């Protein structure tokens, strides 16, 4: 089913933009690539998952569920990883990574992770909180000038998606400008400007609205406070301490970097509504809200890190996990993180790719889903359909809810 670009982009992992003066930051360095030299080889101490890792019966049911969703949603390829301590695991890749060559999907591929980037950006922000360099209740106007009602919108409001700012991705000019030239580079200021020309949608702290302008602003705060480019901050303060050697934030002169091996991505977020190969689209429009790339193995490790607060102080992690109602049944949202059915984490969607990375404290279980399309079926994200189907079988008392807004 075709969708108008402006409505569809409202659901993707974008960012923002602003009429602000450029931030003072060090020159962008190459997105860290040295640690990607052994692409496809992972250093985490994870045992290989046997073919019947969760038992023959459960494994067969999961195989069928994934196959059924793939057929229903027309998903070219998908990789699913589920790890349940004490019970086993399920790691599968099915379908194709390239519809032209027929190359099979793999669990070792790099993938664009869209809005899962938010978990990295907010972690970097919260580390500054732990350092005493910022406070969550600081107004954004203290760091970034020109934000509508910026004296009353706090960093907490931005991270909770309760700023009341107009979503830049709802601006028709933005959708047209992006889809007219998907290789174009956007700056954060350019992105924010699309939203700031509109009146705010509400007063802060009143309504949950998933809005990527919020995360672009937090990215600018990180740059302002540290004096360094956000890709470098995330690499140094988040990726390295978390030992994520196959995760990167492509930016600056290397913004279109996409390490091999990776699947081709397919989207219908085009001006015509026809399906296109979006593998090499420029992700600058997703910046600190959605531009990052990772692998299943890294995301498996990251899921637990985010949910348990390994990189943060206990008090700051407590603040992060204080989720609030969103207005969508079964979904609550904290500081750049959501909870649904007991699962904690985030999902991501960017033209051509979707992902889910969540952790279930009740079972110490981890679920990672990666796929190479973002084309919805009946208004449902394909990643949501897959995560729901898997958890209905593996954790029926904790089902990943599908009523969340698309991202």
Account of the protein in words:
With 407 residues, this protein is an alpha+beta fold. The chain has a single domain, classed as Beta-lactamase. It contains 12 helices and 12 strands. Strands 2-1-12-11-10-9-8-7 form an 8-stranded antiparallel sheet, with helices on both faces. α3 packs across α8 and α6 packs across α7. It starts with a helix and ends in a 13-residue tail after the last helix.
What's a quick, concise take on this entry?
With 407 residues, this protein is of the alpha+beta class. It has helices at residues 5-9, 56-73, 117-130, 155-159, 172-180, 188-196, 213-226, 230-239, 287-290, 296-308, 314-320, 382-394, and strands at 77-84, 88-95, 110-112, 266-267, 276-277, 293-295, 324-325, 332-333, 338-340, 343-350, 353-360, 365-371.
The end-to-end span amounts to 18 Å
Order of helices and strands: HHEEEHHHHHHEEHEHHEEEEEEH
Question: What is the number of domains?
Answer: 1
Low-confidence stretches: 1-35, 37-46
Q: Roughly what is the average pLDDT, rounded to an integer?
A: 89
Specify the overall morphology.
globular
The largest sheet has its strands arranged as: 2-1-12-11-10-9-8-7
Describe the largest sheet: 8 strands, antiparallel
Tally the helices: 12
Structural class: alpha+beta
Number of strands: 12
- The fraction of residues in strands falls at 5-15%
The CATH topology label is Beta-lactamase
What's the name of the CATH homologous superfamily?
Answer: DD-peptidase/beta-lactamase superfamily
Query: Regarding CATH, which class?
Result: Alpha Beta
Q: Rg, please?
A: 20 Å
Helical amount: 25-40%
At CATH level 2, the architecture is 3-Layer(aba) Sandwich
């Amino acid at each position: 089913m075709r969708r108008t670009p402006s409505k569809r982009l409202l659901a993707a992992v974008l960012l923002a933009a602003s009429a602000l003066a450029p931030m003072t930051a060090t020159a962008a360095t190459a997105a860290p690539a040295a640690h990607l030299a052994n692409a496809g080889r992972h250093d985490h101490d994870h045992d290989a998952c046997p073919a019947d890792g969760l038992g023959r019966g459960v494994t067969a049911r999961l195989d069928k569920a994934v196959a059924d969703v793939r057929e229903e949603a027309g998903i070219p390829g998908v990789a699913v990883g589920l790890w349940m301590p004490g019970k086993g695991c399920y790691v599968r890749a099915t379908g194709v990574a390239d519809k032209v060559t027929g190359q099979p999907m793999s669990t070792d591929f790099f993938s664009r992770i869209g809005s899962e980037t938010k978990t990295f950006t907010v972690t970097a922000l919260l580390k500054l909180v732990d350092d005493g360099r910022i406070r969550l209740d600081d107004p954004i106007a203290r760091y970034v000038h020109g934000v509508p009602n910026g004296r009353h919108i706090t960093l907490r409001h931005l991270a909770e998606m309760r700023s009341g700012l107009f979503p830049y991705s709802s601006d028709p000019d933005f959708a047209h400008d992006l889809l007219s030239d998907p290789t174009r580079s956007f700056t954060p200021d350019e992105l924010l400007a699309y939203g700031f020309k509109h009146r705010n949608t509400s007063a802060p702290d009143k309504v949950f609205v998933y809005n990527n302008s919020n995360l672009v602003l937090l990215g600018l705060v990180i740059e302002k406070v540290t004096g360094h480019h956000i890709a470098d901050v995330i690499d140094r303060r988040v990726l390295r301490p978390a030992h994520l050697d196959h995760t990167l934030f492509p930016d600056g002169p290397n913004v279109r970097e996409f390490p091999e091996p990776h699947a081709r991505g397919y989207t219908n977020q085009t001006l015509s509504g026809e399906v296109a190969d979006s593998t090499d689209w420029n992700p600058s429009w997703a910046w600190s809200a959605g531009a990052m790339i990772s692998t299943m193995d890294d995301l498996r490790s990251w899921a637990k890190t985010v949910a348990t607060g390994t990189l943060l102080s206990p008090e700051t992690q407590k603040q992060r996990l204080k989720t609030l109602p969103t207005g969508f049944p079964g979904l609550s949202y904290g500081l750049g993180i959501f909870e649904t059915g007991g699962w904690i984490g985030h999902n991501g969607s960017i033209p051509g790719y979707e992902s889910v990375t969540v952790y279930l404290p009740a079972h110490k279980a981890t679920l990672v889903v990666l796929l190479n399309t973002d084309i919805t079926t009946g208004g449902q994200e394909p990643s949501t359909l897959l995560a729901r189907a898997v958890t209905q079988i593996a954790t029926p008392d904790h089902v990943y809810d599908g009523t969340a807004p698309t991202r």
